[in-house]
Specification:
Length: about 475
């Protein structure tokens, strides 16, 4: 083999050229990534809504010895606890050797995803068809949602307070639902609309039936027939829709993509890919060792609509829970509690675990290739996201970035940097700012995603596995 030239030696020393994950992975690591993602696909299919994601996560936590947090109880190193906020926001904690006032290691993800919600009075009939009226949730391309099979998930809370859980369209024997669209032969006027209005919000009407009720001629309506079916099966009336949370989501399952099965397609990977990998990370350290710092795994709701509400990270729920941990894991009295809580925040660190847009070679013009995420190149560390002049972003410090860089390099984690598109192309925010406001060092870290916010998103198995490896290393970092 010819000796390297001086220029080649200098290039290797001085240039930064991110490596493709499969250039580094051996066959054993590829198998580990593939095996890991089998559990991830199951998690995606079982948790298509934020409520279901919480239910699935709590089940996994209980299987691994975590117990529900009890306010006022004292906890010791090695204990695993979780707290559930309204069934749509959970925090899991693995108590570390150091008291909580020395800081906690937080990974914060969100578990809500873009979808179509039912309105408060959704059921109507037109021309013999029964429909549900909807209001879409989060940033979607509305034209992607017609003419695909939809499943209905959620809860109906009846007047007496009883809760009816609804899941229709996931079992092979279930019916599915759909939003209709125009045939191309008659779509000339539709084609002249701006692309964002190709399908309008009020046109996302879900077809749910067409057979009329035939008990008598005066009552022969499809709406009545549907309502009778719902009452017979669930015991609900039309008024019960006003106190329901029902969501229409894609009815298909997560699958492998490609002859090599290297890609996962599935609904809701933004941001349940970061939820699952961080959950597996905290379960992994629970099985192996007690961390030095208490580890927190946070799954919040409402990120796709601004993190508002009591189940969003914009609330004080995480802040108050950390303060409770300071009290539960130390012997401080009332006079020094406030000081210890402040010390906890300033000594803590956080990974805002959210996805990044991956380069799509079919649409390369929206990204700047030196500063975007690539599929198969590992987890993305983003100093900032936001939109246009860094609006709505956290913008992590160089010092904290250097800590994460060294941590990942020492742990052999394949990583890359990334932004959310060209400077003036658009962009978006994460939950990072809501943790950073507590004086906690925070940086965005996540998995690059293709077809983000579509009914069927794409991720790389190599990147998913690297996210898990990185999150696990973060939890045990001292």
């Amino acid at each position: 083999m010819a000796e390297k030239t001086q220029g080649e030696i200098l290039r290797e020393k001085l240039f930064y050229e991110p490596k493709q994950g499969y250039e580094i992975f051996d066959e054993e690591k590829i198998k580990k990534a593939n095996d890991f993602c089998e559990g991830y696909k199951k998690y995606l299919d079982e948790g298509k809504t934020e409520r279901e994601c919480v239910t699935e996560s709590v089940a996994l936590l209980k299987e691994n010895g975590f117990t529900e947090y009890q306010f006022g109880s004292k906890y010791n190193p090695g204990d695993g606890v979780y707290i559930n906020n309204c069934g749509k926001y959970i925090i899991a904690a693995r108590i570390g050797d150091n008291t909580a006032d020395n800081g906690v290691n937080i990974i914060a993800a969100h578990i809500d995803s873009p979808r179509i919600d039912l309105k408060a009075r959704p059921l109507y009939e037109d021309s013999g068809f029964a429909f549900f009226k909807t209001h879409y949730y989060g940033g979607i391309k509305k034209y992607q949602w017609p003419a695909i099979p939809l499943a209905l998930h959620g809860v109906v809370v009846k007047a007496d307070g009883s809760i009816v859980k609804v899941t229709i369209g996931e079992d092979d024997c279930d019916p599915v639902f759909t939003v209709t669209d125009l045939l191309p032969h008659l779509a000339d006027a539709q084609y002249k609309r701006p692309s964002k209005d190709l399908i309008k919000g009020e046109e996302l009407n879900i077809l749910i039936g067409s057979r009329p009720f035939k008990a008598d001629e005066e009552s022969g309506t499809a709406k009545l027939a549907i309502m009778k079916l719902l009452h017979d099966k669930y015991g609900i009336t039309e008024r019960d829709f006003t106190t329901a949370e029902l969501e229409a989501v894609p009815a298909f399952k997560s699958r492998d993509v490609g002859f090599d099965r290297s890609i996962i397609c599935g609904y809701g990977q933004d941001d349940r890919v970061c939820a699952y990998t961080s959950l597996m990370a905290i379960l992994g350290i629970a099985q192996e060792k007690t961390p030095a710092q208490t580890a927190l795994c946070v799954f919040a709701d409402k990120e796709e609509i601004g993190s508002y509400g009591n189940t969003g990270l914009g609330s004080n729920y995480l802040e108050y829970f950390i303060m409770d941990l300071v009290a539960a894991c130390s012997d401080c009295n009332n006079t020094d509690f406030s000081q210890n809580a402040r010390r906890c925040f300033e000594n803590s660190k956080c990974l805002s675990a959210d996805v990044c847009a991956a380069l799509d070679p079919t649409f390369p013009d929206v990204v700047e290739k030196n500063n975007c995420g690539f599929i198969n190149h590992g987890t993305v560390i983003g100093k900032y996201f936001g939109s246009r002049g860094k609006s709505g972003t956290n913008d992590a410090s160089a010092e904290y970035l250097a800590k994460i860089r060294k941590l990942y390099d020492d742990a052999g984690v394949v990583w890359q940097t990334g932004e959310l598109g060209k400077v003036d192309a658009g962009g978006g925010g994460t939950v990072a700012m809501y943790v950073a406001r507590m004086n906690i060092d925070t940086v965005d870290v996540g998995v690059p995603v293709l077809s983000m916010h579509s009914p069927m998103e794409l991720t790389s198995k190599a990147d998913v596995y690297m996210a898990y490896r990185g999150f696990k290393a973060f939890y045990v970092d001292e």
